[in-house]
Design brief:
single chain; alpha+beta; eight-stranded antiparallel β-sheet; seven-stranded mixed β-sheet; 37 strands; about 25% helix; disordered N terminus
């Protein structure tokens, strides 16, 4: 059965909410609990056995963690809520950024047992990802049922770490109500006190039951309620409200609720709530009803998420007109949608998760695909297949997806993550979100000949699905390098290569592109004389080689006098010298930054030829190298490390161990320092994962090739011992 236009839903009745939080914080369990409370399912699934709504991929099942974005739509009253579950592990921040692009607000999930940073130590980094795009956020505490969980302590921790220096913008909306003590002395939370409404919600039966607070509850909530009201009033646009409150005038509940909702939607106030799965066979988990009510009443609608586009110039998705086009979140407007995720299905092929920002996307529409991925820009028309609503493993057919909604579309063979879909007669291009830069290189090679034939296509499809991956064919090291955000993302990518595309690869040591040069002036003689019947080969040349400053390349000078080397063969000598320099003389690395001067030579009137003098030139260069010291040059990168102040000393020490030259430091922002350094690229191979471990996932770095510098003698000797000398 095909559902007609999401039941006739309009953009104002849609909420797109992304769940963000560290690994193990309980995001996936919370999605299932909200779906149960909303009546979308009749039981809560489990990540461990693959029955969770949002963690259903086989790889997620095996690894017991989310590795990709997923969407679970539920309805609460007249509102459709698209719950977007994202991975909490740092390696999959690309999936998080896609989720932030598709969403209009976020639930930031914090485990009361593991703290803000979570199991993987990424909590604050994920919070900053949300802040960087101005995402409205509410904080949800989970795992309150564990013995070491303390709500008030966690609320203060969230206020200190996530409040941006303010104390009044991270405040609790509710307080937990605890039941009788268990045998171990732990008192589980069985309900909550709604501070603004001054009522109790009892969840001990597995269903929400609201009652009036008793006298002991009123004493408990008075101070917290006053603090909450002051925080809401501080964010109010009504400047008279604070004066009225300080004068003792009671503020009406509708006024407080309206100001709270506006402050949350603006992203200036972050309420703290808590939630837990339902008890026993109950439908309502602790705090789930209140969360659904906050999402529908306090979170912004898609119409409040402003997005602009441009008209691409003819022939390329990369070039465009400069005037932006403001997109209207209106089903009747022109179509503008964005591919936020791409995946492969063994039965239907490529499947694209799409956020519709303007217009309406119909099944079987012909759309214009405009892409702007570096090196893969494209503009083309393509007919889509079906439009479906995701729900766990299911895909529920739709006739259309309206502005503000999220849906899957099939059969877009050329669409990549980040591409724009628009009307075939009115192309648009939405500026893409910033993709994370993959900084962990892994050299791979096909395991067998059969794998070698399938590897290029498999890698191309992986990169189309996940723009946070990059594939490089390094011409200098002759290696195929897969660039990832971290080891976990790399392992998942290689596992998908095997399970989806039947390709097995082997990992090998990642090499850096070295170069070599002459350490001092040297002379060389090349003699190529052969006679084997008929025309022979005869060429002799003498050269002098001297080093040049970095970046000079190969300079060839002709100083032959008296025609010892005929003019027509001088260029032949140069060709031979340059060809040998490209191959290397002391190692298999290219020779750079030298001046080669042709001084003298000999020729034969019959046996000399272009090929003979090319060979003689190459031999002369190798002869010069054998009689002097050669310097190996290694690539050096300009590195910027953004590190928390508390980890600055450890980061500087680690860079020193990596032979870094520290250029200086500067204050980046609150609690962060930016380190400027020059680091040999050989020391950066595993830096992405080691820096993350050193700073609990908070520090970030960028790298950019700077130049080649001489390698220390001992390291150079080890490289020479491993490298075969090129023999021409």
């Amino acid at each position: 059965m095909v559902v007609r236009a999401n039941g006739g839903i309009q953009p104002e009745h849609i909420r797109n909410v992304v769940l963000v939080g560290g690994s193990g914080s309980g995001k996936t369990t919370l999605v299932d609990a909200l779906a149960l409370a909303a009546g979308a399912v009749n039981r809560v699934g489990r990540v461990e056995d693959g029955t969770s709504l949002s963690d259903y991929d086989e790889i997620e099942h095996r690894r017991h963690r989310s590795v990709q974005l997923s969407v679970v739509p539920v309805r609460w009253g007249e509102v459709k809520i698209n719950l977007i579950d994202t991975p909490g592990y740092a390696d999959f921040v690309g999936e998080l950024r896609a989720g932030l692009r598709a969403a209009d607000a976020a639930l930031f999930v914090v485990s009361a047992a593991d703290g803000v940073e979570g199991v993987g130590g990424t909590g604050r980094a994920l919070w900053e990802e949300c802040a960087s795009v101005g995402m409205p956020r509410a904080i949800v505490l989970t795992h309150l049922d564990t013995a070491r969980a303390d709500f008030e302590e966690m609320r203060r921790t969230c206020q200190a770490l996530l409040g941006g220096g303010a104390t009044e913008n991270v405040l609790a909306l509710h307080l937990p109500v605890y039941g009788p003590a268990a045998a171990d002395g732990h008192r589980p939370a069985t309900g909550l006190v709604e501070l603004l409404e001054q009522r109790v919600a009892d969840y001990s039966s597995g269903e929400q039951l609201r009652t009036e607070p008793g006298s002991e509850d009123r004493a408990l909530i008075e101070q917290a309620r006053d603090r909450l009201i002051e925080g809401i009033i501080a964010e109010s646009e009504d400047e008279t409200l604070m004066d009225r409150y300080l004068d003792g005038e009671p503020i009406e509940l509708p006024t407080l609720v309206a100001d709270l909702e506006r402050a949350v939607a603006r992203g200036s106030f972050h309420p703290v709530l808590f939630a837990a799965p339902a008890i026993g066979d109950g439908r309502h988990g602790l705090g789930t009803i209140e969360l659904l009510e906050l999402i529908t009443a306090g979170f912004p609608t898609p119409a409040e998420h402003t997005v602009s586009a441009v008209r691409p110039a003819n022939g390329s998705g990369a070039s465009r007109d400069s005037a932006p086009v403001a997109l209207r979140c209106d089903p009747a407007a022109e179509l503008a949608a964005e591919v936020v995720r791409t995946s492969s299905d063994p039965y239907v092929g490529r499947v694209s998760l799409v956020r519709v920002f303007s217009g309406t996307l119909h099944a079987d529409d012909t759309v214009h695909i405009c892409g702007h991925s570096p090196g893969a820009e494209h503009d083309e028309d393509e007919r889509i297949g079906g439009v479906t609503a995701p729900f766990g493993r299911e895909q529920r057919p739709l006739s259309e997806a309206v502005a503000g909604d999220i849906a899957y579309v099939t059969k877009l063979g050329h669409a990549r993550t980040g591409d724009t879909l628009s009307g075939a007669d009115s192309p648009l291009l939405i500026e893409p979100w910033q993709m994370p830069e993959p900084l962990l290189p892994t050299a791979i090679r096909a395991h067998s000949k059969a794998d070698e034939d399938k590897l290029p296509q498999g890698l191309a499809r992986l990169v189309a699905e996940d723009p946070a991956l990059r594939v490089e064919n390094n011409e200098r090291t002759h290696q195929l390098v897969l660039w990832c955000l971290g080891e976990a993302q790399r392992d998942v990518a290689l596992e998908r290569l095997h399970s989806r595309f039947g390709v097995d690869v082997d990992i090998e040591e990642t090499r850096v592109a070295l170069r070599e040069t002459f350490a001092g002036k040297a002379g060389g003689r090349g003699r190529h004389v052969k006679q084997s019947g008929g025309h022979g080969q005869y060429a002799v040349c003498e050269i002098e080689v001297e080093p040049l400053p970095t970046g000079s390349g190969i300079e060839f000078v002709d100083k032959v006098v008296g025609g010892a080397v005929p003019r027509q063969f001088v260029n032949s000598v140069e060709k031979g010298v340059r060809a040998q320099a490209e191959r290397g003389v002391a190692t298999d690395n290219p020779l750079v930054d030298v001046r080669v001067t042709l001084l003298d030579g000999k020729a034969h009137s019959v046996d000399s030829s272009d090929a003979a003098f090319q060979t003689a030139g190459a031999l002369a260069l190798r002869d010069a190298a054998s009689g002097t010291d050669m310097a190996l040059l290694e690539p050096v990168a300009l590195v910027q490390v953004r590190v928390p102040d508390g980890h600055l000393g450890a980061a500087l020490t680690d860079l020193s161990v990596r032979r870094a030259r520290i250029l200086g430091t500067e204050q980046a922002d609150r609690g962060r320092t930016l380190i400027h350094a020059q680091v040999p690229e050989a020391e950066l191979t595993h830096y992405a994962t080691e820096l993350r471990s050193l700073t609990h996932g908070i520090a970030q770095f960028t790298r950019e090739y700077l130049r080649h510098d001489p390698m220390p003698a001992q390291r150079a000797d080890r490289v020479r011992d491993r490298s075969p000398v090129t023999r021409g």
